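Posting this for the archive.
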Amino acid sequence: MSSDLATLQVAVVQMVSTPRVEENVATAERLVASAAQAGADVVVLPEYWPIIHRDMAVRLALRERWGDGPLQAAMARWAQTYGVWLIGGTIPLEANDPDRMRNSCLVFDRSGNVQARYDKVHLFRFQKGAESYDEAREIEAGTEVVTFLLEGWRFTLGVCYDLRFPELFRRVAPVDAIVLPAAFTHTTGQAHWEVLLRARAIENLCYVAASAQGGRHESGRRTWGHSMLIDPWGSVQALYAEGTGWVMAEWRRDVLDAVRAQLPALTHRVF
């Protein structure tokens, strides 16, 4: 296979993760295998795919040492077994603070080797009536923007709340693709999810893949879902609204180049 691909088949996986890790691992593998069998080159898992649990202590207990742990081993095995690039949503990794974790997205190539790690930078806080979130209580923020090459395509990563901060992606522009695993709340997702994703594609003239949690979880949490793939003109190529499954779209280098030639906005930046 050529090291530079003119097209990529990209699949985004959507889950409604449970409090049971073994169940979520089995579901994730089934969906990765299904997308790979349909021809995917790249498969993206959602944020928190191994577990969504109401108890912070349970989530923290799943922390793995960087480079060693069953969740990392499983993703490496899936990438190699199914011959895909696997962008592994997020898993909890050990932090510098022993009472918190890093919310980390790992990228595995077709041989199962890690090619990138991104630790979520922006930590979500939201309060509306009884609905309340404060990620800083359990998550230690990352500090680095990450890019990696995927068979000739330049990718960058964000996670969920990072979507609201366009300067994160502009720090490494131009990129060919932004990948964003998420577990957007139903409240904020209904209002802002699609418009923000399309804006990131439009302003960066790049493809966007967003893989989400999508449904009513046993923990009581409700996530928005609507996993989608977006082209550099901001058009939604494929959408999975709610529940568990995946969708796929073709990303074409010639389309990316044509849009940037027609509208060379990236070369017109002043600041």
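The helical segments are 21-37, 56-61, 70-82, 166-170, 186-204, 253-262. DSSP finds six helices and 15 strands in the chain.
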